[in-house]
Queue: 4 jobs
Job 1
Amino acid sequence: MSQTSIAPKHVRADLKRIASWIEPGSRVLDLGCGDGTLLAYLQSNKGVIGAGVELSDELVIASVRRGVQVIQQNLEEGLALFDDQQFDTVVLSRTLQSMHNTEHILREMARVARFGIVSFPNFGYWPHGWSILSGRMPVTGEMPYQWFDTPNIHLCTLKDFESLAQALELRITHLATFNGKKEIKWLPGWRSTLAVYRFESIN
């Protein structure tokens, strides 16, 4: 199927930042690739050799229509299909917080690629604290679910993730934080709703 070009204006700000960290012509694995927007953008703008992993039937079809090679699989089953260092970069966008075994998926990312990129909602965003002080779990744009139906089971702050990365011997090379379309530079731990990290294994 022919590849569909994606204009930059149709790509989210956080995905553009992720794309800026990926070398042209490199090998990229996108975990939970959704409708294939990121990989299609990388293929048409950076000439990457990409593959995606996605569980949803509907999203797999959407990815294929964009010209993205995709494997239908549940990420909780791991990345045993892939060899050590098979890719240059592996991406896990807005999915880490819904994984049951967070440490395992991060270790697997470090195994299959030189660099890993993850993004997740920042639970340290200051309105979340006000919600909890008022006795309610927060409901915001990046976390739009009620406590009883949320897929987000492992919420964390920026410092929480950085501590885990250190424990897993993952060296953080880049950080970008966002609030909607705006990239946050000042007090990101308090003012951002989404964090994006790039890391590499120390070993």
Job 2
Amino acid sequence: MKKKEIKNVFVDGAITPEHIAKSISNHQSKTQIGAHDIFLGQVRADVIDGKTVHAIEYSAYEEMANAKFHEIKEAAFKKYDLSCMHIYHSKGIIKTGEICLFVFVSSVHRKEVFEALHFIVDEIKIHVPIFGKELFKDDSYQWKVNT
């Protein structure tokens, strides 16, 4: 069996509504799919110690991160009966309100996509080496801790 190619999931800047809409539109011709589920991670304007986050600067060791994304995809395809899966993550400075993570899964039936999406997003948060620097309006910052 041929080994699947490790794809680059990183997008420079925010993931745009147009990118998301195009991904959805591209699946209309795949008539064996009966369900899709989407997760959109958005940068929040958290208030920490009286300071408001205005953006997060994402960085990663991309080769290692892409390998982890690939492992998560492979595990999800083995565990769930999925037809299709796409993952995109931003790098660089993403402002509050903008999308930084887009996960899109498809299957014949809805139960698979609901369960798979939950599994995939949790695995990303736990295992993928992506680093977020929370930027405050006063030009200070702190490293984000995933919860």
Job 3
Amino acid sequence: MSVTKEQLINFEKKVKKVYEEGKILAPVHLSGNNEDILIEIFKKIDREDWVFSSWRNHYHALLHGIDEHELFNKILDGRSMSINSKDRNFYSSSIVGGIIPIALGAALALKRNKAKKTVWCFIGDMTFETGIFHECYKYSRNFDLPLKFVVEDNDLSTNTPTEFAWNKKSTIPKDIIYYKYERLYPHHGTGSWVLF
């Protein structure tokens, strides 16, 4: 079953509504303005492939086949930033860069077991600049692992422009899927109140 752009947008609006009603007592990180490109990327991702994501993972989870009602209930339970599903080979982490070495290990295991699957690791432009990304990227390429990285660039390192935070951006290797988009929602929450 494919997920449409409208379904993605409406899901986040539903989460936004219950969050603003105070029914979610934990952080949420909402997606927006990147539906079209993600739908195209997920056409390349097999249902049996492994997908690793960060704290902004709702779209990735839906597009990889996690049931909308199951996902919504996990978010209501305060697990928006740690959506995981063994049935769907989907894992996320709220730790910046924390998912990358786990994705690397999964790719290594798949290669050793001669499995015909791919690991997809979605990271932001802030995480792309970290040492852990560059170490894992180098290792995955040196050992020819079935690991594909997707960099989602909203030009922000949390709330600071990435170029300002790191002085300049690194060059994106040609074998990485990269796209830019403008963030619709704030880093955390919905923008209805100040958190920090």
Job 4
Amino acid sequence: MPVTKVTDGDTIHVTYLGVDERVRLIGIDTPEVPWYGGKGECYGVEAGLYARSRLSAKTVRLSFDQAHRDRYGRLLAYVYLGGELFNLTLVRLGYATSDAVPPDTAMAPKFSAAEREARAAGRGLWSACPAAGG
């Protein structure tokens, strides 16, 4: 399905069943961006720009876990760009932390392992953001 907008590092819009839907990438969390009047966090702009560069106007596949929507009405999904699990890429490269929120924890062990590896290697936010331990 086509990506119509990249909101930030962990939220995109796609055309799903003919409707524009917000999609929250599950299992991960990227720092907040200042683009919408909120307070930006360390490495939020970098994560948002990376997601935009990789996903804007691309076609992705969504895979769901247990819950299909969050309390804000967003679809909750693992986002695949070709064969690449983009959620995992964000954690591996240090743009996101793992964030297991039950009941959607099927990929939590993979995301936690990728976070440990990124932290140990000082990738992305792990070296750029003192509060993250960098």
